[in-house]
Design brief:
It is a single chain. The protein is built from two helices and 34 strands. β21 and β22 form a beta hairpin. Strands 24, 25, 27, 28, 29 and 31 form a six-stranded antiparallel sheet that branches. A five-stranded antiparallel sheet has the order 12-34-33-13-14. Strands 8-7-9-11 form a four-stranded antiparallel sheet, with no helix packed on it. The radius of gyration is 28 Å and the shape is elongated. It has helices at residues 3-18, 71-77; strands at 34-37, 43-47, 50-52, 60-62, 65-67, 85-86, 96-100, 105-108, 116-120, 130-131, 133-134, 136-141, 151-154, 160-162, 172-177, 190-194, 200-210, 218-225, 230-231, 237-245, 253-257, 263-267, 273-274, 276-278, 284-288, 291-294, 301-307, 313-315, 319-320, 327-328, 333-340, 349-353, 365-367, 377-382. It is mainly β and 384 residues long. The two termini are 31 Å apart. The longest helix is centred in the N-terminal third of the chain and has 16 residues, at 3-18.
Length: 384
């Protein structure tokens, strides 16, 4: 019997024991390195770091009958199936679901749900179809990268995502110095110009607020015209928070306030951004509200760019830092890719961190396998 199949068998009966499922007693088993006999009669042995419920020959025996099964078949018998449910909407295979007590039907679970019931084990179903819901070992659909062994919670569209535990809460997502933009336009246009005539056609995006506005961050994209200045159509900028070139420029690109040509910031040759910290290694925010903190006193404004729980683009309103006291973002983010710190002093270091612990009632189980990206299907132990 393959090691993978043996591992699944072990997990199967481990789940049975934990959930007090009554399985037929198994035949006598040889003693592995350590082992115990469960109350329902089967032997759980440990060999190294693997849990196994097999005899010394690798044979599973139920009521005196030797059983040969594939991993898929073992997964299927490791679940409770319920045939009396009706789907209230179309539900894809392996999505986490909940029961609506008003319509008395099954629906895909929303993100951060505390009422998840189990997993659709019927395959894809349409509205009004019968639907089987399972718990125990089940295949689920990941919402983003998940490490094997992580506790999981629900994400959008019935997917799963890592639960924010003490191992994740407060982890650094990105850190870096402020951009030190000066001469903020405060109700003026912005001009862009290069000192190299060859810089023609490269796109540059500017992020900033509207003068007198509520902090909503706007982005404008323009094309360089070499040594001829380009004036933004937006003429009521408040605070510029970050700028980014789509391609490297041959010269130094200057971003300046329109009326008096005072320099706000520059992007030197070979660089693409100013005032932007790119989140590279840990973009996951786990559908939580991250926190951001400076290393010392500052009340300068920042923003972040990322995605919401449904993977739609989301940009935080410009918000003032409070020095070394953490600021909790206003929105829950699935991912964050950029921190806009152009307004922050270069002497200040800004750090973005994973948000607070998730409530324990959001846990629906544990990932048995790792997921590399959204829509990866992984084996999980579902115990809502």
């Amino acid at each position: 019997m393959k090691k993978t199949t043996k591992r699944i068998i072990g997990l199967l009966f481990g789940v049975a024991f934990l959930l007090s499922i009554t399985f037929p007693a198994l035949a006598a088993y040889s003693h592995f390195e350590t082992g115990v006999v469960s109350e329902t009669g089967f032997y759980v042995g440990a060999s190294g770091t693997e849990v196994e419920v097999i005899d010394k020959n690798g044979t599973l025996i139920i009521d005196g009958v030797e059983l040969t099964a594939t991993a898929t078949e073992l997964n299927a018998i490791s679940l409770f199936g319920y045939s009396s449910f009706t789907a209230g909407e179309a539900v894809e295979a392996n999505r986490v679901v909940y029961f609506n007590t008003v319509t008395e039907a099954i629906y895909k679970a929303d993100e951060n749900s505390a009422v998840a019931l189990g997993v659709n084990i019927s395959g894809a179903v349409d509205e009004d179809d019968d639907i089987y819901v399972g718990i125990g070992l089940a295949t689920v659909v990941a919402d983003q990268e998940i490490e094997a062994g992580n506790l999981i919670k629900t994400a959008a569209d019935g997917r799963v995502i890592s639960l924010v535990t003490s191992d994740l809460s407060g982890d650094t997502m990105e850190t870096g110095a402020g951009g030190n933009f000066v001469n903020q336009p405060a109700g003026d246009t912005v001009e862009i110009i290069s000192n190299n005539a060859e810089d023609i056609g490269q796109e540059i995006t500017i992020w900033g607020t509207t003068h007198g506005g509520d902090g909503t961050v706007t982005s404008v994209t323009e094309e360089l015209h070499g040594t001829t200045e380009v004036v933004t159509e937006k003429d009521d900028w408040g605070v510029i928070l970050g700028v980014e070139l789509a391609e490297e420029a041959a010269g130094t690109v200057t971003i300046r306030e329109g009326s008096t040509d005072q320099i706000i910031t520059t992007i030197t040759a070979g660089n693409l951004t100013a005032g932007i910290l790119e989140v590279e290694d840990e973009i996951r925010a786990f559908n939580q509200k991250p926190t951001i903190v400076a290393d010392a006193a500052t009340t300068k404004s920042f923003s972040v760019i990322g995605t919401d729980e449904d993977h739609a683009a989301l940009t935080e309103k410009a918000t003032a830092l409070t020095g070394a006291s953490a600021v909790t973002l206003a929105n829950e983010y699935n991912t964050i890719t950029r921190i806009l710190v152009g307004d922050v002093e270069s002497a200040r270091t800004v750090t973005l961190k994973v948000g607070a612990l998730d409530a324990t009632n959001l846990k629906i189980g544990k990932a048995i396998e790792a997921a590399a990206e959204i829509d990866d299907e992984i084996l999980a132990l579902i115990t809502p």
